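Case study.
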Amino acid sequence: MPQNDHLADLAKALAHPARLRILRLLLATPGCIGGDIVDAVGLAQSTVSEHLRILKAAGIISGEIDGPRVCYALNPDALAPLAEFIASLTPPPGDACCVPTRKETT
Amino acid sequence: MPQNDHLADLAKALAHPARLRILRLLLATPGCIGGDIVDAVGLAQSTVSEHLRILKAAGIISGEIDGPRVCYALNPDALAPLAEFIASLTPPPGDACCVPTRKETT
DNA sequence: TTCGTTAATCGTCGATAAACGATATAACTG
DNA sequence: CAGTTATATCGTTTATCGACGATTAACGAA
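After joint prediction, the assembly is written out as follows.
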């Protein structure tokens, strides 16, 4: 079942705090973002570049060359299969769309 | 941000095809399931046991001793944080219904 | 063209993960 | 108690990951 392989690849791309931080950063940054990522995550430039490469290889982000920089952007559709899988494991309680989220401030 | 660490741990637990297969198997199996998992995934018993240990450590499954066997069961709530994170990256298409704005903490 | 900036790639290292066989543990059976 | 079955753990080997510094490539500006 190659689908599992793909899902595992997606999960693997998320399986690192630095990459999650990068994704949050991209989410919080409306426009283009370049080397600021390096500052924000506090790792070496080459390390950040590697994380970006991994995210890009998984299709989770896309990089567009913009002059001397590269403009990264989220590509959230890529994660849809993983989201579906997780949802499929989740019990169907009363998951009507709008459930008043009680208990969230854990 | 320790939350990223936790999310990364969850994703890491999912980042292997054999573990995804195990989760699917648990999902498809209503009652208790024991060593049949070994047959289904086609790996050595010790390897499967290790995968089960990892899933259990992540809280994604739980194992209850049932006589000579161990009864494994999904524990889908454990994945909720990861599902939320992925959802937060997903563009809000027409989600008029559930505004999942989890109030920007931090 | 030369220089400075930005990002990607290379080479290397230690750490972690994955897989296996062998062995140990626990519980039921007789 | 001895034997069988079902899991877990141990120890080892191999592969992959994560991080870094150094180098290279691409681009804009002077």
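Observations recorded in class. The interface with chain B takes residues 1, 4-5, 7-9, 11-12, 14-17, 19-21, 23-24, 27, 74, 76, 79-80, 82-83, 85-91, 97-99, 104 of chain A (CB under 8 Å). The domain at 2-87 of chain A is CATH 1.10.10.10 (Arc Repressor Mutant, subunit A). We will return to this complex in the next lecture.
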